[in-house]
Amino acid sequence: MPKMKTKSSAKKRFRVRPGGTVKRGQAFKRHILTKKTTKNKRQLRGPANVHERDLGHIAQMMPFAGL
After folding, report:
1. Which CATH number belongs to the domain containing residue 17 in this structure?
2. Does any domain span residue 51?
3. What's the domain count of the chain?
């Protein structure tokens, strides 16, 4: 059997918090920011949680994360 490996893309995008939730960065805040309102950009600050429906996919991509 080959070794199980963590997906490098998932490793860069997600962090597992001690409580078991998964932290992710917000989308839509990297470029083309001039047409977005200040309120919209302000609300995109900070981390967000991955929805519990998607945690199964994250667990498959990161088998050693303890999900």
Report:
1. 4.10.410.60
2. yes
3. 1
pLDDT digits (tens, 9 = 90+) for 14-54: 999 999 999 999 999 999 999 999 999 999 999 999 999 99
Query: Which residue is associated with the tokens 């992710």?
Result: 24
Residue 40 domain boundaries: 8-61
**Ordered DSSP codes for the chain:** -PPP---HHHHHHEEE-TTS-EEEPPSS-SS--TTS-HHHHHHT-S-EEPPGGGHHHHHHH-TTS--
This model's pTM is above 0.70: yes
Indicate the residue type of 50.
V
Residue 31 lies in a domain: yes
CB 34 within 8 A of CB 60: no
